[in-house]
Amino acid sequence: MAETTTQTPNAPQKERAEQTQPERLRGGVFFTPRVDIVETDNELTLYADLPGARPEDVDLRYEQGELTLHGRVQPRQPERAALLNEYEVGDFYRAFQIHESIDASKIGADFKNGVLTIHLPKMEQVKPRQITVRGA
């Protein structure tokens, strides 16, 4: 037997809002960095473009199956007024759900020339292995 509920036609409905943007702790713009992900037998490698960020301004965290990337970009202080500004300055934010086949204790990252490279090694039991076939 199905349960029924009675609703008042004009009663306001609660909407469940999912957070799609990070909470802003300071004013400014947040960008979603462009990312390439490459898979090999041993790991996933994630390449994220963070132009204008410095290694010490990148906060990379793994918690409860989620990898969170937050890069702060310091505002530029031009000595003179710019003639043209096409590059907007702002912080970077992106979050990824990580599969349980990744060995979280071995996640590592490098930052060079504005590109963050994140190594997500696979657990030994999920790596493909060659099985020898013997003749009878």
Order of helices and strands: EEEEEEEE
Number of helices in the DSSP assignment: 0
Share of residues in helices:
under 10%
Rg on CA atoms, Å: 23 Å
What order do the strands of the largest sheet run in, or round the barrel if closed? 1-6-5-4
What is the CATH C-level name of one domain? Answer: Mainly Beta
**What is the strand tally?**
8
Q: Could you report the average pLDDT, rounded to the nearest whole number?
A: 81
Q: Which of globular, elongated, flat, extended, rod-shaped describes the shape?
A: elongated
And the CATH topology of one domain?
Immunoglobulin-like
User: What class, by secondary structure content?
Assistant: mainly beta
Largest sheet: 4 strands, mixed
Point out poorly predicted stretches. 1-8
Q: Estimate the strand proportion.
A: 25-35%
Q: Based on the structure given, which CATH architecture of one domain is correct?
A: Sandwich
Span between termini: 61 Å
What attributes characterize this protein structure?
four-stranded mixed β-sheet, 8 strands
